[in-house]
Automatic annotation (TrEMBL):
Compositionally biased intervals (Low complexity): 34-60
Residue span(s) of domain Glycosyl hydrolase family 98 putative carbohydrate-binding module: 81-200
Pfam name, any one: NPCBM
Protein's name according to its UniProt entry: Glycosyl hydrolase family 98 putative carbohydrate-binding module domain-containing protein
Organism: Micromonospora craniellae
Chain spans, region Disordered: 31-70
Amino acid sequence: MDWRIALATVTMIAGSGALVVVTQDALIEDQPPTTAATGGDTGNPSSAAPRSTPSGTPSASAPPPPAGELSLLDAKRVDDDESRFTAGPLTVDTRSYEQVLYNHPGCAYLEPISETYQVDRKYGTFDAEVGLGDDTTTEARVRFTVLADGVVRHTETAALGQIVPFEADITGAFRIEIRTQVMENPNCKGTVYGAWIDPVVTP
């Protein structure tokens, strides 16, 4: 802003007694106030602007997706020796099934036939159906058992001509074991086929 101040000079003209007023404008420039530096480069306008914060902050890596359904026919056996169960098709109660684990449990009250599988705590439920293959030649009854880390989780018993649903909670199990054992077969007569039909573990 410009400020103009009129300066008056008074002069008396000699001999006439008259006064002559002469004015003169003086220009005073309004200077902007000076701001003292406070440790930064105040001459650069951008230096006063706030620094931007990165918007793409990396997030923690997502956990792996849960494991899907796994058939015991494809599961890893703990024992590398020959499997104690045969994997393949079998007819049970006049119906043909493709995904079956079966064996010959032997005489009554003998040690059960078992197989152990590695599941690494990825699964929560064991599902199957159990029964006896139609080629069984005796009226024996067979006990089917699932264990998780050595603890019995579920047991069912089946006879020829029966198909029994089987479900066991295996939550947190590192390994699971399936067992078949003949409960009734007097004099060890005939042949018994204890069958796990479509055995799977699911999360």
